[in-house]
Amino acid sequence: MKKILFLLVVWGGILSSNKSVAQSADSLNFIDIDVQKNVTIYQLAMQFNDPPVARMALYNLLFYSNNQTAVLDSLAYMYYDLNQMPSVALVTRENLKINPDNQVALELGAIAFNQLGAKDQALENYEKLFLKNNDSRTLYQIASMQFELKRFTESSTSADILLKRSDIDELKMSFSKLDKTKQEVPMRAAILNIKGLLAQEKGEIQKAKELFLEALNVAPGFELAQANLSKAGK
């Protein structure tokens, strides 16, 4: 629903921005008509589940639109839904050249770079995003990625900051289970799991076990924490 509302605002902005241009001279009326045509084609193609036609409508709009970043956001969302992460990364990178403060582009770009293995670039995107949104979910991604990149001191600092936040017991994080299904746990449990891994890296095995157990107390059945606890005991 959030994305649908976002796209409606986008298209409203595109139509109004181009309409003002078109009304400045009769000779430009064609632009306004063609923009509206491509917006309609995009909407119908999305309704009828025809991504290639919808994508072409977006590229046509890029030719005309005064609101390039909005169209690029929609294009990035489309590539994301299609799981075409190289295209998501390229579109969001281009978008950030136009508007470095674009939070949609920063987040989608971070997700794409992470899935493509470019974790340094993904972390950079998340760090820039956190400076703008101050969102605990973004900071969790930072802490997790810092750990993956073996930036353990930074990861520990990020995790400690998170543990002091009041919303981490309400927010949920999703993890894959061994049977390939998804498991949601409170963010606090996920953070304690990271802290346990950090303690393990320092050779503090008993502390690591205590942290994994604490994570399991917060989220009984948290499969990842249970697996980490079992490994720490060996």
Estimated structural class: mainly alpha
Write down the CATH topology of the domain at 139-234.
Serine Threonine Protein Phosphatase 5, Tetratricopeptide repeat
Fraction in helix = over 70%
Write out the strand line-up for the largest beta sheet, numbering strands in chain order.
1-2
Shape: elongated
Low-confidence stretches: 15-25
Main sheet properties = 2 strands, antiparallel
Question: If classified by CATH, what would the architecture of the domain at 139-234 be?
Answer: Alpha Horseshoe
Mean pLDDT: 89
Task: Tell me what portion of residues adopts beta-strand conformation.
Answer: under 5%
- CATH level 4 superfamily of the domain at 139-234: Tetratricopeptide repeat domain
- What is the tally of beta strands? 2
Structure in a nutshell:
This protein has a domain at 139-234: Serine Threonine Protein Phosphatase 5, Tetratricopeptide repeat (Alpha Horseshoe).
Explain what this protein looks like in three dimensions:
The protein has 234 residues and is mostly helical. The chain has a domain at 139-234: Alpha Horseshoe (Serine Threonine Protein Phosphatase 5, Tetratricopeptide repeat). It is 74% helix and 4% strand. Strand 1 and strand 2 (182-186) form a beta hairpin. Helix 4 packs antiparallel against helix 5 (85-98), helix 7 (119-133) packs antiparallel against helix 8 (136-148) and helix 8 packs antiparallel against helix 9. The longest helix has 21 residues, at 2-22. Mean pLDDT is 89; it is low at 15-25.
